[in-house]
Structures are given as C-alpha cells and as structure tokens.
Design goal:
With 325 residues, the chain is an alpha/beta fold. The chain has twelve helices and seven strands. It has a seven-stranded mixed β-sheet. Helix 2 runs parallel beside helix 3 and helix 8 (143-159) runs parallel beside helix 10. The radius of gyration is 24 Å and the shape is elongated.
Length: 325
C-alpha cells in the first residue's frame, strides 16, 4: 500500500497574519528609511485587509499607484478620487481636495508624496498648501504621515512668519508634540532679533570660537548675510557670495563647554578640515547638537538670512528651505 501523500499546496507552511495596524506601521517605517537597498516589507494580513495593504505599498512605491479595491466599494471610490487628484490640473486641486476622504492609509501616503512632488516642482498657493496639510494632519491619518504634514506646515509657517497659522496648528494638535512646537516658537522669536551665538570650529584649522552668526565670514570675503546650516554631504556646497557654511557634525555629541574636540568628533572633523583646505575654502563646524537644538535648529538644511546690521530677517528650515544654498 502506498503511503498517504499530502498534496503539495497543503504542505507549504502558512505565514501567520499580523494585525493590519502593525502591518501599516512596518511598511511606513520601511518607507521612512528611504533606503532603496531595503525593500518594503509585505507582511501577511487577514484577507479583509489585503487590498488595503496593496494600496499602501503601491502608494509607497509608485507615483501613480494602482487601485486594487473591488469596484463599487467605498475604498475603490476613495482610491479613484485620489488618482483623479494626482492627475489633476492645478486649478482643479482645491475643489477635489475639499471632498477627499483619507480612510485608507495608502490614500494619505499617496496624497503626501504627490503634494511634496508638486511643492518642489512649483510652490503651492498658500491656501492650497494649507488645505492638503490640514487633510494630512487630521485624526485617523497614520501617525508617521501626520508627523510629516505637521513638520511641513510648521516649516512654512516659520518661513512666512505666519503666527496665526502656527497658533492654529498648535491648538489643533492633540498628541505629544511639545518639543517640536517649542523649537519653532523659539525660531519665531529669533526673527527680528540679534543673530544667536554658537561655539564653532573654524575650517580648516579646527580652532574654536564663540561667534555670532552675524560674525561669520562669507564666501568671497566680507561678513556673511546668509548662513547655510547643513551637514556635510561629501562635497563642498556651491556657496553664493556672502554665504557661510556651518556643518553640524553627524554625531553631535560634543559638550559645548569643552575646548577640545572629543574622540567621537575629532576624526570626521579632521577629515572635513583637510577637504576644506584642499578646496581652498573656509567653513565652520558645529559639533554640539544640544547647542543647535537649544536655538530651535532641529531640521536640516537651514538657511538663515541676516540684515546688514546683523539681525535675523528670515529662517528657512527643513521642508521650507531651498535644496541648495
């Protein structure tokens, strides 16, 4: 008698499903890492959530995601509205945003990615930008996407010195965001006042000085009226005349009371100093993250613009900063 054989399709191990909320978090964390060498996870979820997970992963991977939902379902209608918005002329956007729902996590991510692409191509009118930011900050949107939208809204409120917008965002945010609001509040107060001081190491040479940002030497001579605060990206930034580069260290462990660079900072600082010298340029190193955060400088890049008398006229940070100095 032949032994009983299990059909191959029944002998394969079954991957246990995880809660949908956990699967959403996994995919969004992978998306947030922004590392093409690490693919998005595709966790197993219950049958009822498989279309939603496909929509989320498609929104993370494609500029124009595919609508996986059964035709006629509420989620199909929502995804179709999202796709119509993503393919809209700009003059149709406000009306389509008004009636948009974001019940599906993938819808929120698709809206965020599309809005940011549009922002970089051509800045949105203020009212339209507020409209999509508010959609993404609303309750029910995944926490990571809400955080993106809040950060974006705060950066632009600061750039425009829109205290009414800042107050509205602060009053409507019901979750822990105290540190972020405090940082931005400090930067609002900085505009119009004297430029702050920092302990900076001059490059090349690595001598430290306690300097006001208004006392930094600009490229091509003279005092700088523009301060570009951006980590080292491997190449010396193309600085316009009158612009100084301040490079925050990658670790930020330096105690600002110390007069010598610590072992965590010295090797990379020395290498950067040598590169600056070879380029026959000059720059400044800010090795203390605590000092930067105390001023509210928490998102890079940052462009600080100064008046001739040394007062701060504008702070463009994070999403509102230009891509280059």
């Amino acid at each position: 008698m032949l032994p009983f054989l299990v059909p191959p399709h029944l002998s394969q191990p079954v991957t246990p499903s995880i809660p949908f909320a956990e699967a959403v978090e996994q995919v969004l964390l992978d998306f947030d890492r922004d590392d093409p060498s690490l693919p998005l996870r595709d966790p197993a979820v219950a049958r009822d959530h498989r279309h939603s997970l496909r929509w989320l992963r498609s929104a993370a991977l494609q500029a124009l995601p595919e609508n996986p939902f059964p035709k006629g379902s509420p989620s199909f209608q929502e995804a179709r509205s999202i796709l119509e918005l993503l393919d809209s002329d700009r003059n149709l956007v406000p009306a389509r945003l008004e009636h948009l729902t974001l019940r599906e996590p993938g819808s929120a991510l698709a809206l965020w990615r599309w809005a940011r692409r549009g922002d970089k191509a051509e800045p949105w009118p203020t009212a339209t930008r507020h409209q999509w930011e508010d959609k993404l900050i609303a309750e029910g949107v995944p926490a990571l996407v809400r955080g993106y939208a809040l950060r974006h809204a705060l950066c632009f409120a600061l750039a425009e010195q829109d205290e009414v917008r800042f107050a509205a965002l602060k009053s409507s945010w019901n979750e822990d965001g105290t540190n972020m609001f405090t940082s931005f509040q400090g930067l609002f107060s900085m505009v119009g006042g004297a430029a702050p001081k920092l302990r900076l190491w001059q490059l090349p040479g690595l001598q430290y000085q306690d300097l006001s940002l208004s006392a930094l030497a600009g490229w091509e001579g003279g005092l700088s009226r523009r301060i570009w605060i951006c980590p080292d990206e491997g190449t010396f930034p193309a600085l316009p005349s009158g612009t100084a580069w301040v490079a925050p260290s990658t670790t930020g462990y330096q105690n600002s009371a110390e007069t010598d660079l610590g072992p965590n900072e010295k090797p990379t600082a020395t290498a950067l100093s040598m590169r600056v010298a070879m380029a026959q340029r000059h720059a400044y190193l800010a090795p203390s993250r605590a000092d930067l955060e105390a001023l509210g400088f928490v998102l890079f890049p940052i462009l600080v613009e100064l008046q001739p008398e040394g007062t701060v006229s504008k702070v463009l940070m994070g999403d509102a900063a230009p891509a280059r100095p």
